[in-house]
What we know:
By secondary structure, the protein is an alpha/beta fold. It has helices at 28-36, 38-44, 50-60, 79-82, 96-105, 141-150, 173-183, 204-209, 229-235, 238-241, 245-259; strands at residues 5-10, 67-71, 88-93, 110-113, 126-132, 151-163, 214-226, 269-282.
Amino acid sequence: MAASVRTKHFASFAIASTARFYSTTVHPVSLSAFNSNHENYDKYRPTHYKPAVDSLISHLKLKQGDTVIDLAAGTGKFTELLIPHGFNLSAVEISDGMLESLRKNFPNIKSRKGSSYYIPVQDSSVDAVLSAQAFHWFADLKSLSEIHRVLKPNGKLGLIWNFDPSVPGEAPEWQRKVAELCWKYDEGLPQFRKSWWKEVFQTPEAARLFKFPYQEETHFWTFQVPKESVWHLWETKSYITKLDDVEKSKVKAQVDDIVKEAKVDSQGLVELRLGVYSAWTTKKID
C-alpha cells in the first residue's frame, strides 16, 4: 500500500456567519443512520490506513500510558488501531447501535455513552481526544469547549478522516463516478469534503481554546474489496441510508452499472484508492 504524503499548516481567521458554530445537539441524520446501519457499517466500511494513524500519534507526541479518548468511536474501526499503542484508552459514542457493535468487537475497552456535547470524564483529565470520521458532524463551539474542558493543559486534539479523492487521477475514474453520483444526495449535510468543519476554527472563540495554526497531513492508499461490496460501502453513508427503498434501489442499480467499468482481479476484487486527512492542535493553557 504505497502512500503519498502532504503536510502543511492551516490558518485563517475570516469570520463566517453561520448558526452551525452554535449547535448543541447531535445531528439527527447521523444518529438515525448510525443506529440503523451499525452492523453494515462495521462490515463494509474500511479501516484506517495504519501509517497515517501512526503518523498522527507521532505528531501528537503521545506515549504509552497516556489517557486517550476515542470520541464518536463508532464500531471501533479507529479504536482497533489505537489499542497497540498501550494508551489508557476509552471510547465515547452516542449511538446505541454503534455502541452495541463497539462493545461486541472490543469488550475489554472502556466504552461510555456520550457525545462531543457531553464527554463523561472529569475536567483536565485527558492527554488527548481523538476522533475519526466524525468531527464534521459536530464542528461547533460547544463541542470544542467540551473537548477543551476534558483535556489537560497542553492536551491534544487529533482528527482523521478517510475520504474519496475528487481530483482526476487521484482515484480510478469509475470510483470517482460512483462518488459523484452518491454525493448528489448529501445536500445540506455536513460532510468532510465540504470543509464546513474548518470554519469553526476560524472564529476568535476557537482561537481562545486551541493553538493556531493547526497542522494537517494527507496520505493516499489503496485497498481491495469484493466487487459487490462497493454498493454496500456507499449504502453505509448516512445520506444513502436515509433514502427510501425505491430511491435506494435506483441508486444501487446506477452504482452497480458503473462498477462494471472497474478492473477485477482473479479473486473478484476491485481496487479502491482513498485519501486520509489528519489535523491536530493543542489546548491553550488557561
